[in-house]
């Protein structure tokens, strides 16, 4: 397993400075936001990563629109951005693109007894992911479905929710991301959920139960048992910090990395 962090959590005013600091602190990857990737920034990332031990690990979509909106124009906008980000992901050489299907409540009407809003959403998501999966396969990258918690979405809330979509799509280029913050709310047993999801997990986000940097003084998440479960399923990819810092990054980031490496032993 390799440690990564989202770009905003690494000190530095330039891409080169962030890569240098990431390496200094013991990180192996940096996660970038898709909606902040200009052509100039992409060129710099590829140039710096080519001569660095640190690599770009993943891209968080940040797409416009919504895949599960009632308006086709909104769905098309989301699809257009996702397809573009998949091409960028392949070009940069990251593991894949992290994507949340929908935030908040359903936008599609409940058509019971024919079908509930959630039933309709799942059918639509599966069909769209089939198309997305074809694109991901074409460019050789991965779409990473991200389950959130009940306060941020109503649809994919557990790892199993996302795995069900993957199984229905049946394309190796559609996989899931496991986020320790969301799991601390939605999963009854985090290690057991990780083991059940097994090979579908292709990326991990790290945050305490309080959404702060991981650490016993900041929350109650048992990272050690979670990491043991990841080892058990043979997980060898990135785990990226996606959280807030309780203090100056220059002080808190190295401390957090040291703590996580102890939990990984």
Structure description:
There is one protein chain. The chain has helices at residues 15-25, 39-50, 72-92, 117-139, 159-169, 180-186, 190-197, 223-232, 249-264, and strands at 2-6, 29-33, 55-60, 97-99, 143-145, 174-179, 201-206, 238-241. By secondary structure, the chain is α/β, with parallel strands linked by helices. The protein has a single domain, classed as TIM Barrel, CATH 3.20.20.150. It has an 8-stranded parallel β-barrel, surrounded by 6 helices. Helix 4 crosses helix 5, helix 7 (190-197) runs parallel beside helix 8 and helix 8 (223-232) crosses helix 9. The N and C termini lie close together (11 Å). The mean pLDDT is 97.
Write the layout of secondary structure elements.
Elements: E1 2-6, H1 15-25, E2 29-33, H2 39-50, E3 55-60, H3 72-92, E4 97-99, H4 117-139, E5 143-145, H5 159-169, E6 174-179, H6 180-186, H7 190-197, E7 201-206, H8 223-232, E8 238-241, H9 249-264
Helix pairs in contact: 3-4, 4-5, 7-8, 8-9
């Amino acid at each position: 397993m390799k440690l990564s962090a989202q770009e905003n959590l690494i000190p530095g005013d330039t891409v080169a400075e962030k890569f240098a600091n990431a390496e200094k602190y013991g990180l192996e990857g940096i996660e970038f936001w898709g909606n902040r990737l200009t052509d100039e920034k992409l060129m710099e990332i590829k140039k710096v990563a080519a001569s660095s031990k640190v690599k770009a690990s993943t891209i968080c979509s940040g797409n416009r629109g919504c895949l599960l909106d009632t308006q086709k124009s909104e769905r098309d906008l989301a699809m257009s951005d996702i397809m573009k980000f998949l091409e960028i992901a392949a070009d940069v050489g990251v593991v894949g693109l992290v994507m949340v299907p929908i935030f908040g409540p359903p936008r599609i009407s409940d058509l019971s007894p024919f079908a509930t809003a959630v039933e309709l959403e799942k059918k639509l998501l599966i069909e769209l992911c089939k198309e997305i999966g074809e694109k991901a396969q074409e460019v050789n990258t991965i779409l990473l479905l991200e389950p959130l918690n009940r306060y941020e979405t109503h649809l994919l809330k557990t790892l199993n929710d996302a795995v069900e979509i993957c199984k229905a799509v049946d394309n190796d280029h559609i996989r899931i991301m496991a986020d320790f913050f969301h799991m601390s709310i939605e999963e009854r047993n985090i290690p057991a959920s990780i083991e059940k999801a097994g090979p579908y997990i292709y990326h991990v986000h790290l945050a305490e139960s309080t959404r702060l940097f991981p650490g016993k003084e900041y929350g109650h998440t048992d990272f050690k048992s979670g990491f043991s479960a990841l080892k058990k399923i043979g997980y060898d990819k990135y785990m990226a910090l996606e959280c807030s810092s309780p203090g100056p990054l220059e002080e808190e980031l190295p401390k957090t990395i040291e703590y996580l490496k102890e939990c990984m032993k």
